Request: fold
Amino acid sequence: MTIKYFLCSMILLLNGLRLFSLNAVEPALSAEQFLAEIRRPLTQDVWGEITGRITHVAEGKAQLSGDLRIRITFRNSSLHAQLVLNEKNVYGFEQKHAPGEAVSSSLSKPETEIAPGLFAFGLEPEDLTFSFLYWNFLEELPRQKSRMRDCRVMKLAHPDGTGIVQVWFDAEFGFPLEAWWFKNGETTPWRKLEMKGAKKHANGLWFVREMRLEGTNWKTRVIFDFASLNEIGSQ
Reply:
């Protein structure tokens, strides 16, 4: 179900960052069934490459900008990604989400990080891989609106117990529109994520062109301008 794809000038050939292979989701599904449908993996192993531009503005600091390149492999039970920032800093991310097993993830950072590093932009690896969608289910909250769409709102907990994310999913299609992160024991989110430019391609895949993140006195914008997708074993 989860993959990344492509924006090609003014033609919606492949529009954006995250790819979801979802048809309309059955409205009678329980919260657990709804999430299982959203997390349903692709039927084939694939790899892709995405490029984009990231900017970060924080009060009292100079604006940061950088080029972002992501190489990512999706398998039925795992995700492997390499994030390259400004062709200088290389980050590795791995997530395992085998059916019936707890989700686990790991991050490797450059031995010598050249400023500005990834975290200086207010960005976390799960923002680019959407691995937070696999966090442990806690509860479903009352339905709300996001970008004029009726949404099912799910509260999920980090597998390591380090925080909680609240996600707004389009109630009809299951596409995530917003996410708010909370530190344990707190009721005010410390960061928020919003998707923009989500459209459905003719083959039923969803694409996102832009991500916006914000926290206290800072904002980050990521615009993806190119991606390619191939089955494992293809050139």
